[in-house]
Design goal:
Length: about 290
């Protein structure tokens, strides 16, 4: 086995190991901290928690039933590896929910502690899965697709969806539960962003390379994103091509995978985007013109 193949295999094993750890931590946070306090998560997991609380259907079953169709739908517009990693995360998440759900022990009866530490653990787990190219909730994958056709950002779509879930939880379990859940969601999102090195919904990416056209083509055919090519010159390295594009946080792991390809020699810098003005070019074509 050559060195390149060994490195690639090692990265994949590490990535899947981190996804499994993230899924287990997330399941622990839900079953051992948040659910005993009747604090809801957002997205499809939140819907699954509401349905599971009102019916005999286990949370693990509901989570898979609601999320799997969304992952396959969103996977059509994202990398194939995203689907495989998300399926792995959701399978482990479901098994871990079943395991932790059978234990009578839970961490705390204090709702304030549940909000803080439950939110922190859940954010850490979800962030770890996202960082390694998967997801535990199909809502975000579908939100990426919707954002490509409408002017709303991924964050706005997910927030709108979650507000509906929390209003429903407030109606069923009391307004205080909805407020607790909303506060937990805020903590989860902040920790999730921290795990992902401060990623916001929008990220500006600059790639410096000698293989600009090849990497730009790879980005286009994998993510469907057009790239701006700028000619540059390094003080020592000489002539370079600088690629610039703006992507969503869920696309960052796929972009990392493209740039870290052993066939490319590239340097990538990622920065926050506080505001996007004008049309953000996004093509649905499969042909690179």
């Amino acid at each position: 086995m050559n060195v390149k193949l060994q490195n690639k295999l090692s990265r994949q094993i590490t990535s899947y190991a981190m996804i499994i750890i993230g899924a287990v931590v997330s399941a622990f946070a839900l079953e051992q901290i948040l659910i005993p306090a009747l604090i809801m998560d957002g997205g499809m997991v939140g819907i699954a928690m509401i349905v599971s609380a009102k019916t005999p259907i286990p949370l693990s079953v509901m989570t898979l039933a609601l999320n799997l169709p969304l992952v396959f739908i969103g996977g059509k517009k994202l990398a194939r590896s995203f689907v495989f990693r998300s399926l792995t995360a959701m399978a482990v998440f479901s098994v871990a929910l079943t395991f932790f759900g059978k234990t009578e022990y839970h961490v705390t009866d204090d709702k304030n502690l549940a909000i803080v530490f439950g939110g922190m653990l859940l954010g850490f787990g979800v962030g770890l899965v996202l960082l390694n190219g998967g997801c535990l909730d199909g809502t975000e994958a579908v939100a990426v697709m919707v954002s490509r056709k409408f002017k709303f950002s991924v964050g706005q779509i997910v927030l709108f969806f979650n507000v509906i879930i929390y209003l429903t939880a407030g109606k069923l379990f009391g307004l205080d539960r909805a407020l607790y859940s909303l506060l937990t969601y805020f903590i989860v999102s902040k920790i999730e962003d921290f795990v992902n090195t401060g990623m916001q919904q929008g990220k500006a990416v600059m790639i410096i390379t000698n293989q600009g056209k090849e990497i730009a083509s790879d980005i286009y055919h994998t993510l469907g994103r057009t790239v701006t090519l700028i000619e540059g010159s390094g003080l020592i390295s000489g002539e370079k091509i600088i690629l610039y594009c703006v992507v969503t946080r869920i696309e960052i792991p796929t972009l990392r995978k493209i740039v870290s390809n052993d066939d490319y020699s590239a340097f990538m810098a990622i920065s926050d985007v506080s505001e996007i003005i004008g049309k953000h070019i996004k093509s649905n074509s499969s042909e690179l013109k």
